[in-house]
User: Which sequence fits this backbone?
């Protein structure tokens, strides 16, 4: 079976606040990884399996800049080299666990799961809103028991909002696919949707207090293997859409959706959301966060159901609104094949 | 491995009251099936897997006579044809899920799991007491983690009542197999047991108030793949058995036991029980229902234990009381082989 | 794959008090075994699978010296012979389940899992302290989801006490392996450790009230397949170790650790602990028992973690302190190979 993972890539293994005191275990692409911070707070990522007897290093302790196994005390530096074996003076030169290149940015910890020598060939995903004082951001995570590619499919076809999210962030008018364009380039797929003169979603009525008809835009950009950047918003119908004046614009947001594969059938679902600073009150932002979690749990429910029904022996039918996800799957497959070949 | 399921047959997928508002999911012979009622209450049975991206249709909604997928809104009629795709005007002609022939009778929903073209070659099991005002009926269900054939074996050898059910519906005198006959014909196995002058079962003392010795009859008729009709009763010892006068007859009942395979190792255990109308008070009927559930849970406990111990590498020993179950297994195997061959 | 079990051996299946009224089920080396006591209290061990339809005999009842299946009443004597089939007069001569040689001693029930004809070739493990009024003993058990050999490894390398048990029965000075000797003979591995002038373990300070520096000895003897005898103790530093006078000796104990394989990936962890009679108050003994359970649960946590990380494709590194466990594994492998060959 062909690999479903792009090995040479940066993945978000954890949110920054999840790596605090002591080592923390995360599985990424099926590999057990332990993260910890050294004495100045820099994150280190090692294979979570001691070279001695394969105990999880995540059950150990951080000692200064080093990680000590909780079984017999083998101690590793940030390169994965064992530098101390308490029972004896000599450390065998081959006593070494795998070290993962690691970067921390945007409140998240990225690890490079492929060949470490190649990690400079790509940069971790850049989401400038996370670093821009003009935008108010937060991060969160959920977990789903499904193949991460099903979540990519989900986000590249937002007609699902009318059905999965009709009680939260969707409304009937989003079901149509008439004003949708799909752009493909060598390393991205971009879907642009424009839904003029439709009803507001229930959660958006609640947040904005506006119950009239609206125009809604959704620009979805997939960067393999695990990032989807959404530029989404609403304005009063006919007021100019993204170019509406501040008084007519209702919501204007950026969201980075991240689907880090945990195993072949489970996924870390993480996100960063950015709202224009000052555009929403604290209460409005909190409602938005709460409704987002509700909505993403709605996605998880339907995708876990889908995972349980997957049967490759049964033919499936593609339609027009699948253009984005078909392009996304093709791009991902091509990159995985190239990566495996190289 | 030979198939353990008779594909071309009617199975009870659900009790009628289990299919009410909205779609309901049931697995039968390993196949996910969604049941729903149209606007006049007729039950429809479809494959529980959308042709688009394989989401479970049971997570969707009923719209009039149709079922709409909860993911992207693909909508199906009772034939399984997709008749609406909200994102576009055109519906591809091959957009279709499997539709199962379905019949509702006796308070139960029957589905035909084989070739739909053959569904008229057999009728769903007929249990006339369920439709007869002279009999008071109720239905119920349990669930067991075992191969459905073990439950057939269980019911074709009622010597187990003396052991499994000694605290409920059994008594020591039922352990003997002296007055038992087994009849085999081309599509049924019938076991007739006569236990004269034995003690009452505890539950029957409780229901009838009679603690003296009794005669007990048990007529067990297996109709493959999943129906066993029990005609059972008790009369005061020596009063004539089934022909005893009303004053000497204590219990006179028909029970249809149904073992619908869910998967190869799990079973829907359903039943219809019929007591002569007016022969028992409301209180007595309730006790009978409660003790039946207790007793059938006793069966489930021992059969799940048996399932956990099954080891085909260990020889088993057959005895005289196995005649019914051996005949039942042979008949079932023959019908499965014929069905697969045809 | 080579067998990981030594079949022809005595294993502790249960603690004596676990076999009381009625049959009790235990799985040993993957085999389901039912234990019961006859009318004078002698333990019988049979295959927990009726010869008739493979129901677990442990769901049945003890009738005098015999065990009756709870399904159809087949009744077995201590030899495993079926002696009664309630439904008929005749018992087929091949109606027989496997009977396991069984011995009860030291408050434990030993079963022989191999060829019964060979059971006299070895004796169940002898732990004389359990029968000696000069020693105060207790037994207990835990359960771990790991290969039993990982627990043997654990006990043959006690440098782990400094890390796994630093809050209970370990201290930093035990991490060194300078004064350790490993002796191998044809059927045992013995590791002797001497740790002079080290700090007390927290649990031992609590028990003895002595917080000064100590000398500690640990003599570990592995007798395959599943017994490790520990002779351990502490004395005030420089007072003579095992030869210290009573006033300087702090703890002086024998412990038999037993790792009975349940399945290839789960283990019954049982033990007998012996303290010199009168050397500890009731309160001190209770603290010792409580801290032992805490400590052994610490072992289970790290070993279950280790089991979850085992990856035979990843190289491991051996060091000097592994001498005991390497010798133990080699001895066990040799005995298993000889046993399978013979």
Assistant:
């Amino acid at each position: 079976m062909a690999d479903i993972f792009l090995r040479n890539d940066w993945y978000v293994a954890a949110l920054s606040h999840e790596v605090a005191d002591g080592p923390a275990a995360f599985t990424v692409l099926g590999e057990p990884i332990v993260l910890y911070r050294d004495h100045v707070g820099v994150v280190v990522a090692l294979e979570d399996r001691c070279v001695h007897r394969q105990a999880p290093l995540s059950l150990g302790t951080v000692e200064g800049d080093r990680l000590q196994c909780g079984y017999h005390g083998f101690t590793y530096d940030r390169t994965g080299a064992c530098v101390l074996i308490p029972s004896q003076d000599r450390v065998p030169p081959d006593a070494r666990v795998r070290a993962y290149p690691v970067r921390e940015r945007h409140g998240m910890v990225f690890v490079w799961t492929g060949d470490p020598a190649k990690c400079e060939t790509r940069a971790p995903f850049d989401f400038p809103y996370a670093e821009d004082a003009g935008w108010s951001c937060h991060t969160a995570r959920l977990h789903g028991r499904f193949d991460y590619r099903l979540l990519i499919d989900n986000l590249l076809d937002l007609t699902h909002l009318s059905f999965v999210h009709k009680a939260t962030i969707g409304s009937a008018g989003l079901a149509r696919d008439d004003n949708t364009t799909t752009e493909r380039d060598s390393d991205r797929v971009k879907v642009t949707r424009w839904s003029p003169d439709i009803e507001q979603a229930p959660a958006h009525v609640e947040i904005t207090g506006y119950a009239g008809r609206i125009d809604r835009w959704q620009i979805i950009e997939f960067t393999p293997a695990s990032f989807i950047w959404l530029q989404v918003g609403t304005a009063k119908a006919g007021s100019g859409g993204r170019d509406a004046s501040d008084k007519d614009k209702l919501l204007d947001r950026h969201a980075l959706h991240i689907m880090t594969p945990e195993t072949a059938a489970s996924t870390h679902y993480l996100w960063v959301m950015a709202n224009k600073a000052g555009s929403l009150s604290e209460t409005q932002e909190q409602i938005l966060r709460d409704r987002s979690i509700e909505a993403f749990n709605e996605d998880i429910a339907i995708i876990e159901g889908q995972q349980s029904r997957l049967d490759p022996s049964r033919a499936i039918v593609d339609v027009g609104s699948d253009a984005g996800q078909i392009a996304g799957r093709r791009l991902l497959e091509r990159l995985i094949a190239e990566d495996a070949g190289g």
